[in-house]
Write a structure and sequence with these properties.
The protein is built from 12 helices and 5 strands. The chain is mainly alpha-helical. About 45% of the residues are buried.
Length: about 325
């Protein structure tokens, strides 16, 4: 089912003095040491008969991507094996699964190959994930170029407006990382304007929820820190729309002596690159909602922050 996707970019909300504080890895360094296929292929067994059709294999791959590191490697190797024999649908899942597995430098090698064959059909989500890979390495100029291509290669109606909104939303995320807050606000405002006007045939009941998610990001841009907040002790639960959009994620935040001491999640997220563990830990350790999202799990990361924000407002956050 086609749905609104805001995946892609790491949102570095920890912005001080207009600059992101997270140090980015080097794309040049990662590319220099990149070997395709990687050496760990030799020691990674795959318990799957590759004579089975791709439609079955892709389900197994997505299952593996939601498990531990060893299973994720199996998923990547299995995807590569099907790609090498030319049995992988239209090919978008090779760079996509590389992206989802955290192989960002390798994904950057593969995305252009796929996009060369699918331009003028509006593969917005592919562009978004490609841009996210560049943003992961701090290659903001290249990420902007990819999103500019996406804005000029939109799908036809009824999904055109939805895709425009997604691109604007991701531009906002990118400008936040770059410390260009005024541009981020403008991009977010455009996304909020566009979402409700979409005439997509399904998923329209979620459009106002996407507007609310963007509004939360705008609120957090104006929010300084929890240091001066007077939070009431207790346990509070917020809800947010995650990647698994059939059911809200529930974020239960415990406050003791005015501090966040625990965050528990009830969710249906599957491929989250450990965002459901890492993001709560970051919020607690930093006592802040301005935390680094996980590349490839941006929607999940945003949902955790949004849910925590809603919970903290119940605790007295203003």
């Amino acid at each position: 089912m086609m749905r609104t996707l805001i995946t892609g970019l790491v949102i570095v909300l920890a912005v001080q003095f207009g600059r992101a504080e997270t140090k980015k890895p080097s794309l040049a360094a990662e590319t220099a040491k990149l070997k395709i296929p990687p050496e760990w292929f030799a020691t990674t067994p795959v318990n799957w008969d590759t004579n089975r059709p791709w439609k079955d294999a892709r389900l197994e791959i997505r299952r593996l991507l939601g498990l531990d590191e060893n299973a994720v490697r199996q998923a990547v190797k299995l995807t590569w094996n099907y790609a090498q024999k030319g049995d992988i649908g239209n090919g978008h899942e090779l760079p996509m699964y590389l992206f989802m597995s955290g192989n960002y430098a390798w994904a950057i090698q593969e995305f252009p190959k796929h996009l060369a064959n699918v331009t003028e059909v509006g593969p917005t989500h592919i562009y978004q994930c490609f841009a996210s890979c560049y943003a992961h390495f701090g290659e903001y100029g290249k990420a902007l170029e990819v999103l500019d291509r996406a804005s000029k290669d939109l799908p036809p109606e009824p999904w055109r407006i939805n895709s425009q909104a997604n691109v604007a939303n991701q531009l906002g995320d990118l400008y936040v990382e770059m410390g260009q807050i005024d541009k981020a606000k403008a991009a977010y405002a455009e996304a909020m304007r566009l979402y409700p006007t979409s005439r997509q045939p399904y998923g329209r009941h979620l459009l106002q929820r996407y507007v609310a998610k963007v509004k939360t990001k705008l609120d957090l841009l104006m929010f300084d820190s929890l240091a001066s907040a007077k939070l009431k002790d207790g346990k509070y639960t917020g809800r947010a729309l995650g990647y698994a959009d059939t059911k809200d994620m529930q974020v239960a935040v415990t406050i003791k002596q005015g501090k966040i001491t625990d965050i528990q999640l009830a969710h249906q997220e599957k491929i989250d690159l450990n965002a459901t563990k890492i993001i709560p830990q970051q919020i607690i350790s930093k006592q802040s909602l301005k935390v680094d999202a996980i590349t490839g799990a941006t929607v999940t990361s945003q949902a955790i922050v949004e849910g925590a924000y809603q919970a903290l407002k119940q605790a007295g956050l203003k």
